[in-house]
Amino acid sequence: MTAGERRSVVERFPSGHLPPPQVRPLPDAPASTWRIIGPGVIAAGVGLASGEFILYPYIASQVGLVFVWAALVGLVTQFFLNMEIERYTLATGETALTGFSRFWRHWGLVFALMTYFANLWPGWATSSATLITYLWGGEARWIAIGMLVAIGLILTLAPVVYTALERAEMLKVAAVLVLVVVGVFVAISAEAWADVPTIVTDASIPVQQLGFAVLLGALAFAGGGGGQNLVQSNWIRDKRYGMGGYVPRIESPVTGKPEAAPGTGFIFEPTPENLGRWRRWWRFANREQLYTFVLISFISIVFTSLLAYSTVFGRDDLPNDIEFLRLEGDRLSATVGGWFGTLFWAIGAFALFAAALGIVDYTSRLAADVLKTSYLTRQKESTIYFGLVWGLVVIGCVVLLAGFSQPLVLIVISACTGGLMMFIYSGLLILINRRLLPEEIRISSGRIAVLCWSIVLFGTLAVLTIVNQVGRLF
């Protein structure tokens, strides 16, 4: 390559707000997909909570299986969103937020603030604490506060934060799969299995019964949603995907050796050798997301929906909040045995706690990357990250002490914010992956069409939800 050709690759990146990336060769891809398994499991693990244990089972308990189809729509849409987020990071080592900020300096800050707003209300920790009260009693608020403090300590003391998070979410996924396997044989009634075809034959949008806010939450939180999709950039970078192999990982200020990560990333020349490596990386990354994030999430949503439908659907005394999980556990204890009701609540509590762990991590991780890249360039990202972790823990404790403790309401608020974020960044992903990347690796027309669908889907739902909620107020 001549000097002129090399400059042309770098010059695709606007440098008015951030310095251009450095040119380096693309690291070689691993020999098999199994070596890069992790980010998709984390995504599924963090998502195995709000949608799988609360929103979809709640919908099934209220209206049956008529809305389960939406889980597949949400998951497939998010698969393509995640892969376009990963495309940019695989190619540059930068997060998607850094790519957005190259066009307007404050895009990253906007999304970081929206993610913080969505997660200031600790609905997942509160939900986990509520399930613990079903097992051992106590007051959910104080249990949730203890959980938040424990999360802060776990993330602070882990030598490499990503590794600790990956192990926790893999353990959680394994526990949920145990519940699925056992439940398939002992807990779901023959009548529920017979009604499975109604997922397709009676598919509908039960707005009158549930409202747009709950339905938007279910679509946005089918697997991931909101800021969780954006943090795929950070997770694959810490897993050493592609050009992310050049970027230091976040390590504990107590037990690790924090490094000052560069604010911007790298780009490779589209040589035959680099493009061959790129094709392998892209193939492996797509498989990893499909086999873990999509498959695990969909199986879990279908199972938990069937479980709720089999046990509590049609009851006149069914509450319209998370208390339906108490009745579901009681029903499982009565029909299967006390051991299964206890197992259901225990795995649910652990799943929601692990989700809260992941949410505190990704909220702080997104904001730390933005602040390091665009505002606090001389600070270490690890230092910023841990300050944000404890800031979020303290805010969550204050929110709980102030009396905001209704889990379903908190989750719906978070989901509505997440849906609005997805509407905006679906368009920005088209921009960065068309404008900044070399022609050989940029987004294809088919995937642009899917992102346009995402814009229409989440934009429409966001507008309808806002109009609906404003109408209720007035």
How would you sum up this structure, described in words?
It contains 21 helices and two strands. The protein is an all-alpha fold. Helix 8 (140-157) packs across helix 18 (338-374). The longest helix is centred in the middle third of the chain and has 40 residues, at 272-311.
The tally of strands reads: 2
Largest sheet: 2 strands, parallel
Overall, the morphology is: globular
Average pLDDT metric: 84
Q: Output the helix-strand order.
A: HEHHHHHHHHHHHHHHEHHHHHH
Beta-strand residue fraction: under 5%
Class per helix and strand makeup: mainly alpha
Give the terminus-to-terminus CA distance: 64 Å
Provide the low-confidence segments as ranges: 1-7
Query: Helical element count?
Result: 21
Assembly type: single chain
Helix content: over 70%
- Largest sheet, order of strands side by side? 1-2
| Radius of gyration from CA coordinates | 22 Å
